[in-house]
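Q: Could you write out the predicted structure for this multi-component system? I'm mainly interested in how the pieces pack against one another.
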Amino acid sequence: MTTEAYLVQVDPDKCQGHNRCCSLAPELFDTDDLGMASARGDGTVAAELLDNARRAVANCPEYAISLTEVQP
Amino acid sequence: MTSRHTPVADWTSDFDHTDPKWVADPYPIWEDLRQKCPVAHSDRYGGTWLPVTHEYVSEVAYDTEHFTSRSVVVSEVRPGPEDLPAPIGLAPPITSDPPFHSIARRMLLPAFGPKPIAALEPFTRDLCRQLLDETAGQATFDAAVEFAQHIPVRVIVQMLGFPQDDADIFRHFIRQVLEDVDQSPEERQELINQGEIDAYMDNQIADHVANPRDDLTSFLVQAEIDGNKLAPEHIRGTMVLLMIAGIDTTWSAIGASLWHLARHPDDRRRLSAEPSLMDTAVEEFLRAYAPVTMARLVAQDFDFHGQQLKEGDWLLLPFPSANRDPEAFTNPDTVQLDRDHNRHAAFGLGIHRCLGSNLARMEVRVALEEWMAVYPEFELAEPSAVTWSSGQVRGPRTLPVRIL
């Protein structure tokens, strides 16, 4: 059986610190002192957080977040 | 406020954001323009452009080469030779261009990050409760005047470390700057020359230099760029900016949200029954009723989607119109409290993203939570008595409600 694995990434050149991702999925994103976001850890999304990851992508005004499927 | 200009005859070639029709209901105007003239022009204010689609608004917001932020409020007065030159502008960082912009902005960002703003929530909540207490027993009252307008001004006064009693001075000042834009150049220059607010700010700066404390004014007084303290006019410009940017805007967002809830019993009852919807509801109110239209000056002649923009032309940047573009949002004119795809541009896009967006979101959410806890059922007392602000910040200025 294969399981899909997902990775979230924040493009630091696009992020402007709207903070939507951290608000919607605090388990997956963190902000620095300037309010700019980055993925927590290596960006791996636990299966139960996949919906939150999708929501973060769909609410980023700057299109700065990507969610990609990776081969386990 | 009524416009001093002649009524607009044709919105594609003669628009005016102070026209009574735009002030009362700009959405049909933008919808019409999106279909037939996505970059409109007007000779008013010495020449002004108006892109109305999400795509074109984004494009301008991201383009700091062809557009300058040297002045962001369209009026009969352009920044003159006496004013601080680009890239600093009059009120850094909103009126700054790269590369100075990011220097001025990075200095301020930590004060407006999620954590310091969360620390202001108890003050904001107490303030909202106190304002609601003062309305107790009234069957009808003005939710814009007696509730919404006091919240942002008192929070920013608290942040800056000014006396709470001075909040009214700023309400008056902000209104002049943002709403009286259709005054003649002479009238407006006189207003700017009066220097009343500059003198107030200078006194506060001197007092904070003498008596440093834990507030934003002391933070600015102590802040350094490349080892140098900020120039006094930079500190003052930034403080004026925080006042201008933080007061009318959030007042408008809170008022427009209450206006919506007063007119939509289903949404009101749903929000009351499902408080967990508050976060997406706030984002949806911000999308549908985004208060702020920004502006740019054209920095160099160039062709923008077939229109010949000339250096020095104004350009209105209507984020509220971008938020109603059906190319970017499903059923954009319908408020959906649980809208889960919402990349709205209420706080702008690109390097000038509203510095105070965390603060504004907190204030709107807390104001609505506290309001709904006390007055879950209310309606417009007199729909025809609702009035809207004129200029680039849109929100209800008179909002009589009846408590049910």
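A: Regarding packing and overall arrangement: The interface with chain B takes residues 16-20, 22-24, 31, 33-35, 55, 58-63 of chain A (CB under 8 Å).
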